[in-house]
Specification:
8 helices; 400 residues; alpha+beta; 8-stranded antiparallel β-sheet; 28 strands
């Protein structure tokens, strides 16, 4: 293996011409925020891709004007969030722009609209760009989706059908600050909803993915008596919403107020038993008329499910494990930077002090390199098999 040459400019490492940098702005004006964050990220003039994570409180069209004016039209994908992450910490009402470039990276982007009409087809269509980086020795497909469009595992299946087994999938579902009404996906100068945007990243050096959730199942299992995709109608032969709220001794407001229910359910996911371990399902909303639960991904009828719980210690242990897993595949290299896709539910467990601890912990694991990420409505990480959609999980992509 050749020895890498490495220099560092303004705390942004450059290895064999490859580089990764992050900018952040909390300016109230959208154009200014876009201009400031992209100016900070564009530390060199050979950027290949911009990835944008931003609050939905901005005028997103104006935000993109500011970013694209500074970048000169560098390929761009991004999405709205339930909170933004950078090495400086986690928070809201900001925009985080990451840029990667140099001759050691090859990039292609694509998108699919009207995803909810055909989720699997949208996943496949958005992933067509992966063919354009087929010559690169190391590849990954980055996907940003509308988590409110339906069963996200279908999008992952579609992406897998196009990318194949050798190309890992990574990414997350856009957020809207936990309003659960409408999320946005960004592509070039376009602001979209009900879409999937994708970037195929080819690199001369390894890229590592880590994924862990830090939750554990509690209590007796429940039989999923009736479900349809990501909607659960009946648990243990009773209305699913009633069983769920009774099991958790939920507060009165969660029984009849949609916002109160969502905030309560945020830290009380459902778990499914899989060959690879427990998978977690974010309970996003409830239908108070038919007493059903709406999850972000499929909960199979006839299977067993559990209530899951976690605390700050277990969630942070998951953080450690995800970072270690991502770093372990870099063949001893120091990463250039990290993209982090962290579930909004984990933020709910950690609280404000805990999320600062988590971001600092990620920084320690990756050696203080630039970090960009967001709080999601679901996470994508497929490194083996055909599955790869997660809830209540941290996914880390380390670039080297």
């Amino acid at each position: 293996m050749p020895i890498s040459s490495s220099i560092e400019v303004s705390n942004h490492p450059i290895v064999d011409g490859r580089w990764f940098a992050v900018g952040r702005s909390g300016a109230e004006d959208a154009y200014t925020a876009g201009l400031e964050s992209s100016s900070e990220a564009l530390v060199r003039d050979d950027a290949k891709l911009l990835v944008v994570f931003c609050s939905d409180s901005y005028d997103l069209a104006e935000l993109l004007v500011g970013i694209n004016e500074r970048s000169g039209g560098v390929p761009l994908i991004g999405c709205s969030t339930a909170g933004e992450i950078s090495a400086s910490g986690a928070g809201d009402a900001s925009v985080v722009v990451s840029a990667l470039g140099g001759p050691g990276f090859s990039i292609a982007t694509s998108l699919a609209t009207n995803a909810s009409d055909d989720l699997r087809g949208a996943g496949a269509a958005a992933s067509e760009c992966v063919a354009e980086v087929s010559a690169a020795p190391h590849r990954v497909l980055l996907l940003l989706t509308d988590g409110l469009a339906g069963d996200q595992q279908e999008i992952v299946r579609g992406a897998y059908s196009m990318a194949g087994a050798r190309v890992p999938l990574v990414g997350g579902c856009a957020g809207d600050g936990l309003k659960m009404q409408q999320t946005s996906q960004l592509y070039g100068d376009q602001v979209l909803t009900d879409a999937v945007v994708a970037a195929a990243i080819g690199s001369e050096a390894p890229m590592g993915i880590g994924v862990r959730h830090g939750w554990r199942k509690v209590g007796e299992p429940m039989l999923v008596t009736k479900s349809d995709g990501n909607r659960v109608f009946v648990l243990d032969d009773r209305p699913a919403l009633d069983v769920y709220l009774e099991r958790l001794e939920a507060p009165d407001a969660a029984w009849n107020d949609p916002a109160a229910f969502t905030h309560f359910a945020l830290t009380h996911p459902l778990g499914l038993q899989r060959r690879s371990g427990e998978e977690v399902r974010f309970v996003a909303e409830a239908d108070f008329a038919d007493r059903s639960l709406g999850c972000i991904a499929e909960v199979p009828q006839g299977g067993l499910t559990w209530i899951m719980e976690g605390d700050s210690d277990s969630v942070l242990l998951g953080t450690d494990a995800a970072c270690n897993e991502a770093m372990s595949t870099l063949a001893g290299r120091t990463p250039l930077g990290v993209l982090a896709f962290d579930c909004i539910a984990r933020r709910g467990v950690l609280g404000d002090p805990g999320i600062e601890t988590e971001v600092a912990r990620i920084g320690e694991h990756v050696g203080g390199v630039p970090i960009a990420g967001f709080y999601t409505y679901g996470e994508i990480a497929r490194t083996r098999g055909v599955g790869g959609f997660h809830n209540q999980t941290l996914v880390v992509l380390a670039l080297s």
